[in-house]
Amino acid sequence: MTEARLAGGSQFGLEGFTASIIRSTAAGESASEALRQLIHSLRERQNDKLNDDATILVIEWR
What we know:
- The chain is an all-alpha fold.
- Helices cover 47% and strands 0% of the residues.
- The chain has two helices and no strands.
- Helix 1 crosses helix 2.
- The longest helix is centred in the middle third of the chain and has 15 residues, at 31-45.
- The relative contact order is 0.22.
């Protein structure tokens, strides 16, 4: 996920990843909603064109 290339050629990076997760958790979103927002954030920055595979693993401890 962090190595995904954006429309301009730069990487989504750890900053893009953490910014999305921090926004979601600060808003009190569930883990599944934080994941959905993360995917949405990446797709938005790629102009809705996924050019590579991306792997995300979410573990929610209850």
